[in-house]
């Protein structure tokens, strides 16, 4: 029987290989998976940060699917809010996927322009979570 964990694994593999859809048949059961976001090839940059239409802002994106945690008792006691100054590599949020916590980090030094994801929201791979204004050098 195909489990939710199996489906998540299939989705990750589809994205890595650039495949848009797959069907899996187990007896009478048919599971069909279709990927709507652009595929990322191995060795390519993750979708954690991408330019927005306003070239002065960077979208900080989820690198996985799961439940957004803007705070966490052990790893992120204070939520990041608009206007907060952040440093490159700073932890901004976590995405809970099964028992795993996937970190979302600031790709550059700057200030948070907007928070696009809500606490506990289900997020998908590549979904924008924050907008970041890079610090001028």
Automatic annotation (TrEMBL):
Gene this chain is encoded by: accB_2
Pfam families: Biotin_lipoyl
Domain Lipoyl-binding residues, every copy: 59-132
Protein name per Swiss-Prot or TrEMBL: Biotin carboxyl carrier protein of acetyl-CoA carboxylase
Family matches, as SUPFAM superfamilies: Single hybrid motif (SSF51230)
Organism: Achromobacter agilis
């Amino acid at each position: 029987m195909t489990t939710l964990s199996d489906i998540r694994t299939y989705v990750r593999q589809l994205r890595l290989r650039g495949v848009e859809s797959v069907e899996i048949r187990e007896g009478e059961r048919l599971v069909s998976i279709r990927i709507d976001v652009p595929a990322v090839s191995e060795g390519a940059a993750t979708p954690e940060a991408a330019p927005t239409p306003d070239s002065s802002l960077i979208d900080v994106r989820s690198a996985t699917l799961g439940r957004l945690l803007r705070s966490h008792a052990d790893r992120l006691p204070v939520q990041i809010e608009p206007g907060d100054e952040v440093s490159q590599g700073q932890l901004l949020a976590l995405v809970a996927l099964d028992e795993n916590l996937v970190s979302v980090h600031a790709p550059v030094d700057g200030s948070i322009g907007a928070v696009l994801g809500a606490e506990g929201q289900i997020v998908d791979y590549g979904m924008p979570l924050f907008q970041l204004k890079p610090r001028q050098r």
